[in-house]
Structure formats: C-alpha cells, structure tokens
Amino acid sequence: MAAAAAAAVGGQQQSQPELAASGLALDKAATAAHLKAALSRPDNRAGAEELQALLERVLSAERPLATAAGGEDAAAAGGGGGPGAAEEEALEWCKCLLAGGGGYDEFCAAVRAYDPAALCGLVWTANFVAYRCRTCGISPCMSLCAECFHQGDHTGHDFNMFRSQAGGACDCGDSNVMRESGFCKRHQIKSSSNIPCVPKDLLMMSEFVLPRFIFCLIQYLREGYNEPAADGPSEKDLNKVLQLLEPQISFLEDLTKMGGAMRSVLTQVLTNQQNYKDLTSGLGENACAKKSHEKYLIALKSSGLTYPEDKLVYGVQEPSAGTSSLAVQGFVGATGTLGQVDSSDEDDQDGSQGLGKRKRVKLSSGTKDQSIMDVLKHKSFLEELLFWTIKYEFPQKMVTFLLNMLPDQEYKVAFTKTFVQHYAFIMKTLKKSHESDTMSNRIVHISVQLFSNEELARQVTEECQLLDIMVTVLLYMMESCLIKSELQDEENSLHVVVNCGEALLKNNTYWPLVSDFINILSHQSVAKRFLEDHGLLVTWMNFVSFFQGMNLNKRELNEHVEFESQTYYAAFAAELEACAQPMWGLLSHCKVRETQEYTRNVVRYCLEALQDWFDAINFVDEPAPNQVTFHLPLHRYYAMFLSKAVKCQELDLDSILPDQEMLMKLMIHPLQIQASLAEIHSNMWVRNGLQIKGQAMTYVQSHFCNSMIDPDIYLLQVCASRLDPDYFISSVFERFKVVDLLTMASQHQNTVLDAEHERSMLEGALTFLVILLSLRLHLGMSDDEILRAEMVAQLCMNDRTHSSLLDLIPENPNPKSGIIPGSYSFESVLSAVADFKAPVFEPGGSMQQGMYTPKAEVWDQEFDPVMVILRTVYRRDVQSAMDRYTAFLKQSGKFPGNPWPPYKKRTSLHPSYKGLMRLLHCKTLHIVLFTLLYKILMDHQNLSEHVLCMVLYLIELGLENSADEDSDEEVSMGGPERCHDSWFPGSNLVSNMRHFINYVRVRVPETAPEVKRDSPASTSSDNLGSLHNSRRPKVLQRENSGTAQVFSLVAERRKKFQEIINRSSSEANQVVRPKTSNKWSAPGSAPQLTTAILEIKESILSLLIKLHHKLSGKQNSYYPPWLDDIEILIQPEIPKYSHGDGITAVERILLKAASQSRMNKRIIEEICRKVTPPVPPKKVTTAEKKTLDKEERRQKARERQQKLLAEFASRQKSFMETAMDVDSPENDMPMDITTAEPQVSEAVYDCVICGQSGPSSEDRPTGLVVLLQASSVLGQCRDNVEPKKLPITEEEQIYPWDTCAAVHDVRLSLLQRYFKDSSCLLAVSIGWEGGVYVQTCGHTLHIDCHKSYMESLRNDQVLQGFSVDKGEFTCPLCRQFANSVLPCYPGSNVESNLWQRPSNKSIQDLIKEVEELQGRPGAFPSETNLSKEMESVMKDIKNTTQKKYRDYSKTPGSPDNDFLFMYSVARTNLELELIHRGGNLCSGGASTAGKRSCLNQLFHVLALHMRLYSIDSEYNPWRKLTQLEEMNPQLGNEEQQPEVPILYHDVTSLLLIQILMMPQPLRKDHFTCIVKVLFTLLYTQALVALSVKCSEEDRSAWKHEGALKKNTCDAEKSYEVLLSFVISELSKGKLYHEEGTQECAMVNPTAWSPEFMEKYLQDFCLPFLRITSLLQHHLFGEDLPSCQEEEEFSVLASCLGLLPTFYQTEHPFVSASCLDWPVPAYDIITQWCFEIKSFTERHAEQGKALLIQESKWKLPHLLQLPENYNTIFQYYHRKTCSVCTKVPKDPAVCLVCGTFVCLKGSCCKQQSYCECVLHSQNCGAGTGIFLLINASVIIIIRGHRFCLWGSVYLDAHGEEDRDLRRGKPLYICKERYKVLEQQWISHTFDHINKRWGPHYNAL
Do 370 and 337 meet the contact criterion of CB atoms below 8 Å apart? Predict the structure, then answer.
C-alpha cells in the first residue's frame, strides 16, 4: 500500500518518468483508498498535498486534446493511446478517486440514497413530448414530463401534450411555478425531513477532486477556442473540440443525476471564488496555466469585452467616426465601444453608410453606463463555464448540464445572476451567430427556467439591475439596424426606424431577448418596478419609437413594382412581439385604482415620444400623399393605456388627454391607415403587388387585430369625441378622397381619384364612419360581452370548429390576462351562442369535423354586420355571413326576400366618450347624408345599395342617440333669416330631418346638363348625360340671389383647423394652401367649373318617403302606421321591423323620427298626403347608357355564368346519381338482363369518348373501363370471432399464423412436399395474398378511342395524380380511377335464351358431353383486334401483382403456374364479392357492385386463355369424379411422386377449372351437371372430415348404425349410411390409428346429435354453394333469391338445381337429399378412399391434417384500436424499430397486421424502397394502411401513390388534431374507422380519396 502511495507521490518529481508510469499502472483503487484514509485523519494536510500532486499529473491539460488546438504540441501528448486515451484514463482515475477505492456504481447508489427528491427537474431537449396543464400552472410556461404527468391526477383539467420546440425542464415539485395539487406521487412528499444526513466521508473525495476536474475542463475549452477568422467562427473547429470533450461533460451530467447530495457539492465547487482564484489566476510558475490564462484574456478582448484589471480608457481603442458623433450627443460613451464593435462586426454593410446612418441616431443620455455592455469579470468556475458555453454557442450537452443543476436552490440563484451578468454578451454572440435559430432555442431553454419564477426574477431585478440590462441590451441590438425614415418629409426627417430587411428582423433573431422581457414583465413585482422607473420608461419609449413608421409603403403609380418585398412579415412580427406583447404584459398590472400613477407615467412619456416623433418627421397637418405605414406602436401604447385608465382605473379621461392640436395630429396617421385599407380593397395599390393586400389582411387578422386595428379605431374614437365634429367628418371624407363626389350635381370632377374607384372609396368612408360610431369594444363593453360579440361574428361568417374559433378570437395576448383560450368564460359563452353539430359523413366519403353553428336566437338578435366587417380578413366572408343570415330568415319564415344587414342596438357608451355622438349631430354629416339620399334618388352614377344601406344606418344611429331635449322645436323655426348658413338651422338630426332645402348652388363642369341656357321648362333630352326630364333642375340666372351656398368640406376643415391653431398669418396661409392640388389634377386638364343653382325643395324626411316609393316600385307606397295604431309610437321596438330590406329600414327610420318629435310626425303625414305625380319612363342617352350599362352588363354576365354553372352541376349530379344508383335500369350496361325478350339481341355499348353506340366486334372491340389491383384482403380473414387488437404492450404481439393466407400457404406447401407438382397446382387456389381484383365503373369505350385518349393524356402537361406511363387514367365520363380496359366479348346480350332451356338429357349423357367439350383443344382465335386486346389485358392482369404471388410452381415458368393463376383470379373476384355482400347470400338481389360488375367479361378473357392449356385427358380430374377405374395398388411407385388424391382437392377450384375449360358461352345444363358431380365430392369430403374429427367410440357407433340402413331405398342419399361406409373404407388404412387423446377433446361427444351433424355438413358445403350461386348469377344472369340465414343452404341448393324440384319440404331438410351420384356411390367412394389409404400408409399425420379443411372464415377486419389515443402514442412514440433498433423519427404502425415501421426512415431502406412502401407490398400487395404515431393521421399507400386519409381519432369537440399540434386528448371515432375499413374491404380507396401523389418509394 505504502509503495503505491509513494509511487503516486513520486510522480511529482518529473525526474522519475519510469516511476510515474509504474504508478499509473498500479492499482487505482488501492491508491484511492489510501488517499481517502489519509484525508480522513484530523491532520490531513499531507494527504491533501499528495492528492493535489496526483490530480495535477492525471488531469494535466498539458496534453492538449488532440485537436485543432495546434499541431505543435500534439507531439507532447505522450504515450501512444491515440487521441482521447489519456482523457479516458483521467476519467477512470476521477471515478476511482470519487469512490475512494470502492466500486463507482456502489458509490453512485450510496449517494442517491441521500437525495431529497422534492423537485423533478428532468431536462429535455427539442422534440421531446411533454405536457402542460393550465389548471395546475401558475406560470404559463409550466411543463411536466410524461412520467410526472401520468403519475399526477389531471382528470378534467385543461391540459395538452406538446412537442418541445426549444427544450425545457419538468416543473413537478416546484410550487413557484405550479399548484401543489398537480404534483405527481413521487414529488408530493416534502421528504427533506426523513432523509438522513450525508456522512462526511462519502463525498469528501468529491470536494477535492471536482475543482481540479472542472478547471481541467475549462482549460480544454480555453485551449480549444481559436478566435475565428473574419468570416465568423468556423463551426467545424468548435464542434471538434466539443466532440472530444463529450465524455467529460457527460461525466458531469451523470454526477448531477446522482441527486441532491452531489448537486450541493457541485454547487460549492462551481460558486467557490477562492478555488477559482487559486487555480485560474495564471500567476503561478506553471507555464501551461499562464498560457491558458492568456488565451482567456484574448477571448474576452476579441468579444468586445474588457477585463476590469486592464486599465484601458473606454471608447478610445481604435476610435471610429461613429464614436465621436455619438459622444457629442451627450451619450455616456456607451455606444462608443458599441460603434467600434459594430463597425468590425458588420463589414458586410457598406461601412461609411453604416456610420452615416448611426450619426443620426439620437439616443437619450439617460441610458445606463456602458459597463452593462462590455465589462465582464469572472469570479467563479460557474461564471467562466457560462462564458465558454456562450462562446461555443450553447452546446446542447453544456446546456443540459447547467440546467440539471437547477433543483439546487443555491445554485439556481447563483446561476441566474451569472446569466444576467452575461446577458449583453449573449446578445452579441447571438447577433454574430450563423446558427441563430438553434442558439435562440437553447438560450430560451435556459432563460425560461430562470425567469418564470417570480421570486427569483424579483431578486435579480433588485440585485442585478435585470430590467436595466434587458432594456439596454434590446436597445443596443436594434440600434445596429436603423435607417432614416422616409415618412412625411423625406429630405429633412430626423427619425430613424429599424430596417425590416435586415437579418436581425427577418430571422427574428431578437426573439429570445424579447421573450425573456415579456416573461419577466408578467410578474407583478417586476412590472411595478418598471412602471415606476421614469428613466426606464423613457428608454423603452425610445426603443418603441424605432418601430414607429417602419416598413413604409409608397403607392406605385406607373409601373408594377419589379420585386415584391416580403419584409412586411418581419415588420408585423416585430411590432407584435417587441412592442405589443410587452405592452399587454404591462397593462395586465394596471387593473385597479391604486395603479393610476403607472398609467399616468406611461401616458406622459408616450406623449413626449409622440411629440418628438412629429417633430422629427416635420409633421404639420397634412399627411404626405400615397404613403402608408401600418406600424404606429406609440399611438397604440397611448390608446391602450387610455382605455385601461378609463375602464379599470376610474381615471378622468380629460386629465390625460393632450391639447386639441396634438389630438388633431394624433388622428391623422391612424385615419390614413383606414383610408388606405379602402384604397387597397379598391385595387388602387395593385401595382404594389400582392404583398400590400397581405399587409391589409394581416392588420385585421385575428392574432394582430387587438394590437393594431382595435387601438387605432379606439384612438380615432377618442379624437372624434374631443375634436370639433364638423372638422372630423370633413377630414374623413377628405382622407378617403371623395369630397368632390359629394355634390348635388349629376357630374363632377374628382381631382384625386379615378372614376372607377369612387364608388368603393365612398362605401369605404361610410363603412368606416359606421364602424367608428357603432363599435363599443373599448367604449364600455365588458370582457365577456366582447368575447361574445367576437364569437358571434366568427360563427356568423361560417360554422367553425372549436380550435379554429379559439384561433380566430383575438385573445388578450398576455397569458395572465384571464381570458385564456379554453377558459370557463370561453366555454360558457360558446354554449350560450352556438349549437354543436357532430361530425357527419357525406356519401362521397369526405369527412366533416365537429362544428359549432349559431343558435337561431343569435341570428335573430345578435347578428352584427358591423363586427363582421371589422373582423373579416377576406371580403367574401361578409357575403358569406349575409347569405347565411338570408337563409336563416327564409327558413324561419321571418323574411322571404333579400334582406339588408340588420340594425343592432348597441351597449351604452361609457360617459367619458359621450362626445363621440356629436358626430351624428353635426351639420356636415347631415349635408352629406342629404346629398347622398338626393343623389341615390336621382340615380346619379357611382352609388350603390351598400352606400344607401350605410346612409340609412347612420341616420338611424343619429335617431337612436339624439340629444334628449326635444322641446318641440317650433320655436327654432323662426324663418331662414336666422340661420348662418342656408343648409340646416341647428345641429340636432331630429329637427334637421324635417328642414326643407329649396335651392342649392353647385359648381359643375361647363359641359354639365345643369348649365343649359335654354328655358327652364325645356324637355329636350338629347343632351349629354341629362337627368330625366321630370326633375329638370331650374338654372336660375340670378347669380346673386342668396338662396344657397356652395358647401365645401375642405374649406370647412381648414377653417376649423385655423381656429384652433392661432399661428401667425404667414404660417397659416402656408397651411391652407392645398399642397396636393397641382400634383393631383386629372390627366386631361380639367374643364372650367361654373356655378349653377339647383332647385331641390326636399327635406331628409321627404327624400326618405320618396325613396320608399322608389324601392317598392309603387307610388304612394308609404302609409304612416301610427294612423291605424297610435300605440306604435310609444313602443318603437317592433319585431316586424327588425329584419328586412331597404323598405323595412326606411319604415323603421320614419317611425323612430315620428316617435321622437310631434313635428316630424305631422310633416310625414303632410308629405304622404301630397300625392306625388307619376314619374314618366326614363329616356337615357347613349353616353350615359354606356357608363350605366357597364356595371349592369357585368352583373348580367355574372348571373348568366352562375346559371350555366348551376345547370352543369345539376346535370353532373343527375349523372352521378344514375351512375351510383344500384337499382336504376340503364341500357348501356351489358349486364342488363332482359329475360322476357324471346329474340336474341346483340349487346349494344355506348362509347363514352366518341359517343357512338354499337355492338362490340372482332375488328372494333369495345371494352369496360376497369381498375385492376392486387389485393390481400382475403388473406386477412381469420377463423376466430375475437377481433385482433392493436398491440399496446410488449406482451401483445400479433402472429399471423391464423390468417386465411397463412393457412392456404401451409396447405399448398404440404401438398407440394408429397405429391406431383403439376397436380398440386390444380388442387388449390392462390390469390389469397396478392390476388388480382377487377372492378369497373360500368362505362364502356372503343379500344381505339381509349388509345387516342391515353395519347392525349400523355401529352397533357398538367400535373396529374396518376401515372399515364403505367397505363393509369380516369374514366372520361365519371372520372373514376382506372388502369386497364377489359374487352367485351362479341355475342348476344344474354346468353341465356339458347342455353338456358332445361334439356331432358340424363346426367350420364351430360357428363360425356362435358368431357368431350373439355377435350377439344382451344385454338386461339385468329389474330383480330379483339384477340390482341384479350392478350394485352391478360398481361395487365399478370403484371398487376408481384411475381411472388404468381409463381408457386417448383419448376419456374411452368404453364401450370399460369393455369393456376388464371382460375385463381376468378376465385379472388368471386370471394371478394361474397365478402362485400357480408359473407353470405341471404340478402340476394343483384350484386352490391350493382350493374357495375365485370365478372362476365373477365370470365371470357380467362376462359379464352385457359383453353390454350389442355389438361391431358388421363390427368383430368373430371375422369376421377365420374368414372370408376380399376384400382391399382402400385400407384405410389417410388421414383415418381403420386398425384394429389381427389379428396384433397379444393372443390371450388375444381369447379372453376371445369367451367373455364369449357368452350364459351357455356350451356346451363352443362353447368348444372358439373355442379352436381362436384357436390358429391364435396359431400364426401365433409363426411371424411367429420369422421376424422370424432372419437373412436363415436366412429364405431356410426359405422354400425349406418350399416343397418345400407339396403334401404335412397340409401345413397342418407348421410348415416354414407358416413358409415366412409368410416369402414378408411379404417382399412392407418388413418385413424395413431390418434392421441388430444384429438378426442376437439369436440364434446355429447354434441354429436343428428342435428349437429347435419349442421356441420351444411356449414362445410355452404362456401362452395355460395361461390357457385354467384358464378351462376354472373354467367346466366339469374337473380339471387333472398332468404333467412337458417334456410340459406336449401335455397341455394334449389337455385343451383341440386334439389330435385319435386322435393317436398315437410320433414326436416337433410343435405344429403341434394346428392345425385353419377356412378354408384359406394364404388366411387371406395375408389377415392383408396388413394388416401395408400398415402396414409406412409404419412398418417399429414394425411389427416390435409383432410380437415377449415371452411368457416370470418369477414376480414382491421385491428381493433384502443379508445384513447394516448395509449397508442405512449407505447409507440418511444418504441425502437426492430430493424435498426433506433427510435424512428416518424414511427408508423400497420393497421392490418400491427407491424411497427419507420416512415421515410433511410435506416430501414432496402434497394431504395423505404420501409412503409416495402411493408405495403408484403402485407397488402401494394395497399398499406398506416397510422402515423406522431401525427394521429392515417396514410394510405396504393401502389406507387399515397394519400393522407385523415384521422380516426377526434377530440372532445369532434376535431382531428393532425400532427398533434393542439395535443388535446383524442378518442376513437368508431364511424370513421368503419368507413376506413369499408373502403379497404371494398377496394375503393382510389375512388373516394381525391388527393393522391407519388411517393417515389420514399415513405
């Protein structure tokens, strides 16, 4: 022992290398134990020194990693061992030393015993599946690992499963983040109390060893890092270093997993400053340590960071042009270093310009000192480790190690502080990184663990200035990409904005920092500090102003823009994430009165920033034309804080509003956006490309609207409520450029707008006013009312699924705001307004999701068109809502016609905003309304129903919100002299409505009709554009008459503006000068305007009444309702008026006007008394006609098109119905059976391509469109009723030995072992797997037409879902998928007439005829077109399936193979049809495939080819069935294998062989004869099988019993007699001898009653009878009778002619009565049994097995799936693939057989086929049905194509969750699964699923 220790110490003197080597070789464990003992002594100095010396040597970093660290010292790496050997050795030493001489594993176990596992803390990386429970979470970021989630109880909670994006850690056990009720069983117990104290000596060694180990790691990191060249770090080098360090870091990670005891040791080591100082200062003599320290300092410096000891003056190192200018601006030198770092970072930008831009950056000097940005001092291992982690761009292993330590509380605090200290450095590294995405995720992975904890966040905020750091870092980050703003005044603008084209914004690089900021603002204590700190608020507003006015759009007026920039994505994302979300975070803490101060602070600094902004862009009062920016975050901050102040904090609105001038400026830009939206929708921005539409849509889209359009509209509402209403209204119309349109004249000149845009801009302006005046989102609605309104609006547009509703309803983006999606209020509101429609299936197979649809009362009372317009992204949604509303009214009988949008009563206004209603009572608006009503009545151009609708809406709003004092204003009627302008006397709408306006002076172009010079009475209408004569305006020459004034909106607006802003006159003049007029005159110089005076003599009331006449098309149609019922005036809310069209709206308005004022009532009555003269018919001149007609023509064309489409659709529909309809008689189908007609008619076919009808002939054959597909559905039948389940545990595996395919395979290989091959291939059928199924849509075409059709498809460039080269096409008529054409055999329509007459020949004669007919060789018909086609279709059929499913012969290519294959195709199709009918023929009738069966044609093709192979007559089984041969005992001579005994033959196969060997068409009596003969064989087989199954004593009893009856008459038709005979025959051989006892148990002896035996025999024979009946049905067209299940046998037997017709059914039916023996029964049975005897002599066991045939197959089914999807997911998503033993990225499972496969996994590829495709070929012969585990969807592979079928798992709301994005619990939808199974069994995947694509074998 001592020697070893001495050797270890000896290593200290480097002079004894040989000693050192031997020391290492000595036993490590012994050394460790010795050292531990030495250290345990009270005086352990010697031991400590000894250990230090050992570690120094073992862990020396002098052996650099064999890395990029530099080749020159690689030689020093000493010893061979290759790279990494030394490191491994060092690790071994460490493990030994830690364990102190014991085993390392035992040491680990010992430490684990002391783990107080209160927290889970499991760390995961991206793509891990975790859970989040909102019910249990306190922080929105809370997450649980699957194990903790399933161990806890979350039933009924709102949880979801999610795939981690960036990685995370499990929060189970952490009560700061989640409620304790959600903890799992393991972490519920606060177990610290009962865990014993850690013994001192257990971890003693760790405390000594670990510091050296970590220092060694740090040295390696220092060594390995080479300052990257100019092009950024070469990731290769860094990754190399990291790979080599993998074992060390993993070792540390393993230590963290040992639990709390070890973690606290690690924490001590990592945070101990003394240790760090001693080891790393680099001051020792050790040259290596010095070098390492130098590298560290270089790395610091190159990162733009300084080490405080270096006494350098900041900002002086390599000064740059940018630095000085910044310093001058009174900035504390902070950006000095920034400028210098940036200019070196960003040489890719043109340098000088970069600095030029920065010169103008105006930063407030309030920013904190620059130490935040560039001073780092590391005081502990932890700090330097984090530094290198950042330097190496967050390697995953390091991140996991650092996070694994977090459960240790002390470490958590230390680490969080360290992280904050490095925050600026993280930002810099992130900006430079090439892999910023990965890095972002890793940063957030860490920060979300630190900042979600409120207590921790508060502590760091107080101690480390967290908020200052974050805001400063964000500001710095954005400063690197600022450009000059071009908004407003391009030349002199001082404003800078972020450049949305820069990578920083484009790639969302700022995301991690912003996300952290939002995260800490969600904590109240932190947010409070932020809101109280004025300096921070100033800096933050400064930051927000960088986004104000970004991504400016300039309207293209001439060319279409060349390159559509997509920067708007970046701009919207930036405003939402960097501005809006922090804003919502702050707002969530301003909910109560006590927080008023915060709001005042924010509003104050926000207004200051806005004022600075207006100054910077030189804004006076007119926005620059043709510019719009959608980004005004400062306006929106201001708006939202105002709203909050009034709504929650009871602040007085006026106390936080600025002066009038500021309000006027504030409203300009939001208003500009609203006008621009209208311009964009009017296609005025079309030359800017599609992206401008994209911006308009994003602005109102559900995720953005409450941070964008809502605050904008609210701000405009606030401005409108405080500014002069006339000013506001005229501003609106001026912004929307429709001022010139608002004239009484019929013609006008619009200087700023083309005529084609006028109408939609006018609609836009009026719609905007309606929204402005009726929206109450921020003006008094409660949160629940808002939620309800939003939900109703979305549901009215379309029925919605639950998830799309959650997505469409703008939630308050801050997660803590309370309106969480899926919260109780959401669900309760949803159930109040909507009904759930369960998911349904449409016959076409398209699957619906569960939908919510509005309740009837919602349509009736809550449908709000205004809200719908505000929230629609696509204009078509408004139409959709109106259509649905119309349908509701029709259906409920409330209104039959085309309704107008209903007027909805509004919630009352909050008192602060009462001023908004003044807009409705201002003369300007009344003049506009009057003018528009007049223009509509006079049919001026460019007005639409929508305009009228909005005008009436505004009038109604005015009446609803009229001022209360209506003191019958007769007083104010003191004559026109008193009013200062001659339009309206007052400003109240109620009184202005009745005010008559006599004359109006208008400015009109000289060409206008109003300027006619002839006498006023003139009636000529030949003038251009004249109005119709009856309303001829009188042009009065008395220009001076003071009758009326020209009303100019613009002048009004300017006048008001000047009243408010009393500036010096010079400035004012400058303001008034219209800036835009000269630039914007219309292209042709405008004709002179002259003034004309029109006689009007109308009031608003009279115009409304005339409008009523006009709309209803009748004179005097309006009759005041109150004349009949005065009550109506008292209660004006009358249901009859709530829904209807324009007429109803007018009546409703007149009623409201009358009920509000007696005067109005009187005047309405007066107007109605004056009978209006009839209006003469209009004569319209050609020019006017042109303009008027253009719109009408378009309308008509649209209607025509609609009509045509509808007609086409109905045609198609009726076609589809007839095509799909099973029962409709169709004459073009060859299968039409017309037995009634005596004469033979040739079948006539219609060609769907050329449309000609005619018979199919040898030269020009016709064919059926067919789809050939290989199918293994039959092979999936099983013999047990118990359904197979999908395995969800390791135990439940599925073995396919009991499937039909497997059983048949075994049987064939058994036969092939003992019998002659060619004979075996006639004894069975194949095609259970990979059989060819033929189906048709029933349409026929000429084969030559088809060829040219294929040619045209081949040349068609359109991408098709199928491959023409493989012969695929779609039927030209019904578009069903097909891939071949089956020729129709020429001949009679129905072959029955000649052949079906029953002949009276005896069975013996018929047998001879059959034999002769079969013996004739079938020469192939002469080379005709028909025969060529027959050959080619046979080739197609062969190629449909793979070779392995065709070749079963031992001699490859033998003709027997083809023979077997061909009759098996017939078998496959018959068996499948049987399955489609449900496995029996009880239902009878035509086949389910209806008239669309092609078996008849298929038989012709097969028979034609089978006749080419003649069977030698001595081998023909027909002989064995019908003739007695002399029994030859030497049959089994040794050298040749015997033939298969006839009793081993499959009878159904024999039937098909016999029939297909006959010349076609077949005669009915021959068919019946063959069936009768085969039935005798079948019956004998049944008896033999029965005899084998029962016990010895039963056999002897039966043998005896039957022998007694042997001589009775009809003995040959009695089963007892025959059974006894069979038994006695077979007893002669060895068949019954070797019977063990296990056979007896097969059937309980008591069950062998005569009834049971009869049933057994019938069941044995039934499958044959069914197939035969189907065959007869197809060949001779006889209908199948329907019957009860118990009588199926007898009905089919009589149908096939097996039952003699005279047979009476009085006594119970016995199957034996169907027998008709062609030769004496006993003889032939003896002959058959003899063959078996001779075989069983040698192979008794196999002989018996072959006799028992399983005939009862159940229908095929897919695997049964579990109720809950989670059970599948949890088992399979971590399951390893059996082939490559990795966990597949996309696991899938086959629903047919349960095999687990990798989708797209290249690991399991075989010859370029991926595993799913391969499996689909092996399991389903090219058809595969796979459930994709990670997506919950089912994918279908069919041949070379695939499609996504959909999901059979739905959530509680009946929705799929593709890709498990929502992660809600999913439950099986039985109906869907049934549909899937049905499509699989009926082979209709190709027809029902539409979206197919090629998979190129890559699935």
Answer: yes
> What distance in Å separates the CA atoms of residue 1540 and residue 1588, rounded to the nearest whole number?
19
- What whole-number distance in Å separates Cα of residue 354 and Cα of residue 1652? 98
Number of neighbours of residue 1783 by Cβ within 10 angstroms: 13
Helix 875-892 with 783-797: angle, nearest 10 deg: 90
Per-residue DSSP letter, 861: I
C-alpha–C-alpha distance, residues 682 and 675, integer Å: 11
Helix (H) or strand (E) holding 1367: none
Instruction: Count H helices and E strands in the chain, helices first.
Output: 73, 28
Residue ranges of alpha helices (H) inside 1630-1764 are: 1650-1676, 1688-1695, 1721-1736, 1740-1747
Residue recorded with tokens 């259970």: 1328
List phi, psi (to 5°) of 1789: -135, 140
* Cis geometry, peptide bond prior to residue 1255 (ω within 30 degrees of 0): no
Write out the two tokens for 617.
Answer: 């862009």
Measured CA distances, 898 to 884, 955, 1211 (Å): 11, 21, 27
Q: What is the pLDDT of residues 1030-1078, one digit of tens each?
A: 333 333 333 333 344 456 666 666 666 666 654 333 333 433 333 333 3
Q: How far is CA 1872 from CA 1088, 1760, 1849, in A?
A: 73, 13, 8
* Extended strands (E) in 1174-1237: none
With CA atoms as reference, report the closest residue to 1337 among 1250, 1391, 1263.
1263
Which residues, in sequence order, are CB contacts of 1787 under 8 Å at separation 6+? 1772, 1773, 1775, 1777, 1796, 1797, 1798, 1799, 1828, 1829, 1830
Measured in whole angstroms, the distance separating CA 1041 from the mean position of its chain's CA atoms is: 71
Residues shown for the chain: 1899
Which residues neighbour 891 within 8 Å (Cβ) at sequence distance 6 or greater?
Answer: none
Ramachandran angles phi, psi of 851, nearest 5°? -125, 155
Q: What single-letter DSSP state applies at residue 1284?
A: P
Q: Which residues of 1148-1161 are buried (b: 16+ CB within 10 A; e: fewer)?
A: bbbbbbbbbbebbb
1182: tokens are 């050609």
Q: Which DSSP string do the residues of 1117-1181 spell out, in sequence order? A: ----GGGT-GGGGT----GGGTS--HHHHHHHHHHHHHHH-HHHHHHHHHHHHSPPPPPPPP---
Nearest to 505 by CA among 561, 564, 551, 454: 551
Tell me if 1556 sits within 8 A of 1499, measured CB to CB.
yes
Cβ pair 498, 485 in contact under 8 A: no
- Of 756-765, 1221-1230, 1313-1322, 1756-1765, minimum mean pLDDT range: 1221-1230
Q: What is the pLDDT of residues 1483-1529, one digit of tens each?
A: 765 544 455 788 888 988 888 888 777 666 556 778 777 877 765 54
**Cα(1240)–Cα(1389) distance, rounded to whole angstroms?**
7
Residue 128 neighbours by CB distance under 10 Å: 16
Kindly tell me the burial class for residue 692, based on how many C-beta atoms sit within 10 Å of its own C-beta (0-12, 13-18, 19 or more): buried
d(C-alpha 36, C-alpha 327), whole Å: 61
Measured distance CA(3)–CA(1683) in Å, rounded:
101
Q: H/E element holding 1097?
A: strand 1089-1098
Taking residue 92's Cβ as centre, other Cβ atoms within 10 Å add up to 13
> 141: Cβ–Cβ under 8 A, 6 or more apart, which residues?
168, 177, 448, 452, 519
Neighbouring C-alpha atoms within 13 Å toward the C-beta of 684: 25
Q: Which two tokens stand for residue 379?
A: 């005081």
Contact present, 174 and 142 (Cβ < 8 Å) = no
Task: End-to-end CA distance of the chain: give it in Å, rounded.
Answer: 64
User: Judging by DSSP bridges, how do beta strands 851-854 and 834-837 pair with one another?
Assistant: antiparallel
Lowest mean pLDDT among 1377-1391, 1542-1556, 1577-1591, 1647-1661: 1377-1391
DSSP 48-62: HHHHHHHHHHHT-TT
How many CB atoms are closer than 10 A to CB 1496? Answer: 20
